[in-house]
Design a protein that fits this description.
625 residues; Rossmann fold; seven-stranded parallel β-sheet; 23 helices; 20 strands; 37% helix; binds adenosine-5'-diphosphate; binds magnesium ion
């Protein structure tokens, strides 16, 4: 089904083995014949449910997505009720756009091909009135058009609603979105009171509910859960990944959002473990859920989530299938889903049982297309959200701290301390606030309550879920993006002399690992010292960038050592160590006052001019490109 283009076939598989056949619906033979010829085997769910009441002349309020077969759902029964012998407008179909109006008109013509004498007139903006007036006067029983133009005709007197027996509002929410709702209201207000109305909409905003309440008469309500339908009770946002690691972002977001339980979706089994470990290490009651975990244990994890013993689950799509836990307030798409359908499945884990839910998706630059595909398929806008700032987090922590203290007052075990604290306060004549503050400090056990609001995020580290997903999953992701040349050009290729051995010739090397890979100076020193069997004092200046690093090493290292180093990996990534382009050996003494040698990296702020502009916590000599 998923490789079937959605515009050419309707989702009928749901009723493949059950539900009525077209023959059961009681359609006249003129209509039944078209259905047979068109190769429709079974009515789609919206058709099966709408056709009988519409045939009986009842009003219908249908909630269904595009591609569910709505046109036939109203066209077939209403055609059956149209008097083709009478040549006045009897059926009015309102559609949001010219394209949709044309499409519906064409489909209705097709469905009416064995109904002799039946004519359909399409009436929309952008076409001359003359043609349309001729079509209307030519005896069309069906008028299909956009609200604006229909209203124009009504006002001009070139169209009369006197004999209208049925009005169909197709894609009502779209008409609302396009600003036609007042026109729709006006048109319905001018139609005969005894008409039948069918309203179809993918979503039910309150204005549409209002239209239904005003103009529909005891409608039969039909709701079709489609595979790409997202509940309107789920607030959807995305965060554009940049500047911070997804793990840090996840931590901040879940701290600032009022999360009850959170489902985090990643692409690989390994990522479920890694993200869950990170969250656990940061004090979140979190568990991984993936296909490798035995069924019994998976059930235990879900049970813990239900009971509140776990607040976050990091899962793959497969492992989370069908998971139904009411307290899930948030779904985080840590890795973007593979398609719109899995997005719908994922976010459907929240907003259960009529509650509201929130969905947040992490989107990288190259994933923007998937974002818009999802928006188009679900027909819902996903708003961009900023990453909560340290200030936001602190505000939350302050709030929560106060709430926790307040909630603990009167706690049985806290009461035990009462006497002792009063004693202390009285004996030493202390201020209660001072005492409480001291206790709070003790309770924090040395862990700062607040984030440093001046500190920037730690630099992005290796995004293993992304790459691993690419490798073992679809294979459509580049293995690794090399640092663009222009970055490298900004970087000095001039080695610095060693502090303790300024006479050793040093050469600057480039390595294809950087902050994105999670590399720290210690990793580089360790790897090189081990692989090259080189004393660490001979490893010179190290500078780490986003996706590459520079290191100064003694000139003339034996070829065997060099080839070993080239094959060495740091944080799982091969170094591809090579002499930095344009590098020359140096061994001059450092000019006085210049920080030199060792593992000291420039950019620590304190030593270089203008360094104080850099927050001290930011240890990266990274150039923001
Ligand atoms: P919607 O208005 O809900 O978006 P359409 O009425 O445009 O859906 O139908 C979508 C496609 O499905 C059309 O190509 C239509 O011919 C086809 N279709 C409709 N009903 C059926 C059915 N019962 N079986 C197979 N295909 C169908
Ligand atoms: Mg349609």
């Amino acid at each position: 089904m998923s490789d079937t283009p959605e515009t050419t076939e309707v989702a009928t598989e749901v009723v493949e083995d059950q539900g009525p056949s077209f023959a059961d619906l009681g359609l006249p033979s003129t209509v039944q014949r078209v259905v047979d010829e068109m190769g429709y085997k079974k009515p789609s769910p919206i058709q099966a449910q709408s056709i009988p009441p519409l045939l009986e002349g009842k009003d219908v309020l249908g909630l269904a997505q595009t591609g569910t077969g709505k046109t036939a759902a109203f066209a077939l029964p209403i055609l059956a009720r149209t008097d083709a012998a009478s040549r006045t407008p009897q059926v009015l179909v309102l559609a949001p756009t010219r394209e949709l109006a044309m499409q519906v008109a064409k489909a209705c013509e097709e469905y009416s091909k064995y109904t002799p004498g039946l004519k359909v007139a399409a009436v929309y903006g952008g076409q001359d009135y003359g043609t349309q007036i001729r079509a209307i006067r030519g005896g069309a029983q069906w008028i299909v058009g956009t609200p604006g133009r229909i209203m124009d005709h009504l006002k001009k007197g070139t169209l009369s609603l006197t004999d209208i027996k049925a009005v169909i509002l197709d894609e009502a929410d779209e008409m609302l979105r396009m600003g036609f709702i007042d026109d729709v209201d006006w048109i319905l207000g001018h139609a005969p009171k005894e008409r039948q109305v069918a309203l179809f909409s993918a979503t039910m905003p309150k204005q549409i509910k209002h239209i239904a309440a005003t103009h529909l008469n005891n409608p039969i309500e039909i709701k079709i859960e489609s595979k790409t339908a997202t509940a309107s009770t789920i607030e959807q946002r995305y965060w554009f990944v940049g500047g911070a690691h997804k793990n840090d972002a996840l931590l901040r977001i879940t701290e600032v959002e009022d999360c009850d339980a959170t489902m985090v979706f990643v692409r690989t089994k390994q990522a479920t473990e890694e993200v869950a470990d990170f969250m656990k290490a940061n004090g979140v009651k979190c568990e991984a859920l993936n296909g490798d975990i035995p069924q019994a244990q998976r059930e235990r994890v879900v049970d813990k989530l239900k009971k509140g013993k776990v607040d976050m689950i990091v899962a793959t799509d497969v492992a989370a299938r069908g998971l139904d836990v009411e307290r899930i307030s948030h779904v985080i798409n840590y890795d973007i889903p593979f398609d719109a359908e899995s997005y719908v499945h994922r976010i459907g884990r929240t907003g259960r049982a009529g509650r509201s839910g929130k969905a947040i998706m992490f989107v990288r630059g190259r994933e923007r297309r998937m974002l818009s595909t999802i928006e188009r398929t679900t027909r819902q806008r996903i708003e961009e959200m900023p990453l909560p700032t340290a200030k936001d987090v602190n505000a939350k922590r302050r709030e929560r701290f106060k709430a926790t203290v307040e909630a603990t007052i009167g706690n049985e075990q806290a009461v035990m301390f009462k006497e002792m604290i009063s004693e202390l306060v009285n004996e030493k004549e202390l201020d209660v606030v001072e005492v409480a503050s001291a206790l709070a400090h003790l309770a924090q056990n040395g862990i700062p309550l607040f984030l440093n609001e001046n500190e920037r995020f730690r630099p992005p580290q290796r995004e293993r879920t992304e790459r691993d997903g690419g490798r073992e999953g679809r294979g459509d992701r580049p293995q690794r993006e090399r640092a663009p040349r222009k970055d490298a050009a900004d970087v000095s290729t001039q080695a610095m002399p060693l502090k303790d051995s300024p006479d050793v010739d040093m050469v600057r090397f480039r390595m294809e690992v950087g902050y994105q890979d999670g590399v720290k100076p210690g990793n580089i020193v360790g790897a090189i010292a081990n692989e090259a069997d080189l004393e660490s004092k001979f490893i010179g200046h190290i500078e780490i960038f986003d996706d590459f690093s520079m290191v100064d090493l003694p000139d003339g290292m034996p070829e065997t050592v060099m080839s070993k180093l080239k094959a060495t990996r740091i944080c799982g990534q091969p170094l591809h160590l090579q002499v930095a382009e344009g590098a020359k050996p140096v061994n001059r003494k450092p000019p006085s006052g210049r920080p030199a040698g060792g593992n000291r990296r420039p950019g620590n702020g304190d030593r270089r001019p203008g360094g104080n502009r850099r927050p001290s916590g930011d240890r990266r000599p990274r150039r923001d490109s």
